[in-house]
Amino acid sequence: MAALGQVNKYFEELSNAISSGQAGRVKPLLRPDHPTAQQALFNLTSVSTAQLQGAAKRWLDQPWASIAAQHLLALSKRSSGRPDQAFALYTAAEGPAKGALNALAEQPQDLWVAAAMEQTASNAVVLAREADAQLMLEGDSSKSKAVGGFLQQCISALGPARRPEESARRRGNLTLLILLTRVYMRLNNVQGCSQVLKNFKQNYSGEVLQRVPAAYRVAAYYYLGRTELNSDNIAGGIQMLQAAFKECKADSENVKHILRALVPLKMLHGELPTALLLQRHALQEYEPFREAIATGDVGLFERSMQANQYRLIANGTYLLLEKLRFSVYRRLVKRCVGIAKQHPGRDWQEHHLHLEVVLRVLQQQGVPTDMDELECMLSNCIVRRYVKGYISNKLKVLVLAKDEPFPAPCEEWWREPHFVGSA
């Protein structure tokens, strides 16, 4: 049949790729946007399911015949505007994702099988996201939640590699953990992310992780670094993201994604990026924050947070940058001390900084505030150890410690303070 011409061509290419045993040939053919697969879809409406499955069996052995046929059927549903039905086909017991997973469990040493499983699992995640996009007006994210449960089942069924020679199983398991982390992050499921992080630490020590290609390590370090941030483990986040940056190729687009999370962390840790670094990686949205911290300009910081609010929320860095407000106030107080020392007796007396000095500077920066709000903010800076000292409410002065009034960065900078008697 003429209608089966392009379909047969697709099955033939997939059969040849599988026979070659080359992951680089198999994986692209299972992408939804592969040209041969797209051409096969044009005539698929005039082909029955029985005919499609029969053609697949003529070219491919099981389970790949069923995987390939279901793959095209799911793409057909997707192209007709029904990603929800495509998702259901893809994650069914006899669907492509489960079929490739079972094949990998039986062939844990074949990297081309791992590549097929990785692509089909990734396709399932994409289909879930597209299905939820149609239901967004109803506030429904059921498919993303469903694919999270599906990936959990896949991780349990496949299990981690137990022997060094099970390289394909190792790659497949790591890919599933990365995909599950991405899904949980999109759903803001902090507990789920923490469980994935625990699984990773149990099964992927430094030596084990070195057995997978750098691209896998970069992805793992990046998403696990973001997971550490969700738990307010800034030091762990920096460590993971720095590892991802070190492993990533300098010309890769992923460098920008890594730095987008790493730069605010470094600023929170007291290390400011250079303007050249931000310009080189098109991260100019961080330039006003860098300047605000360097100069103690609270007004610039507040205006930048407001202007970049939606972009920062979309990037998942808004709450992280909010923590930098205390760093800006720390720098402001430090500069005010320098100004006050020029007028000893009036604004500065033996480590006593008159709060009126800080209030005047804030007003010049265009920050609408009063003395009560200023005392509240500076009290927070003291509790979080950005500044060492205390506030005399009666005298309206900040009494700075004689020894290191501006301490080095510490964990209290990014952790929420715990007050006695609080829940």
Automatic annotation (TrEMBL):
<dbReference type="InterPro" id="IPR045114">
    <property type="entry name" value="Csn12-like"/>
</dbReference>
<dbReference type="InterPro" id="IPR036388">
    <property type="entry name" value="WH-like_DNA-bd_sf"/>
</dbReference>
<protein>
    <recommendedName>
        <fullName>PCI domain-containing protein</fullName>
    </recommendedName>
</protein>
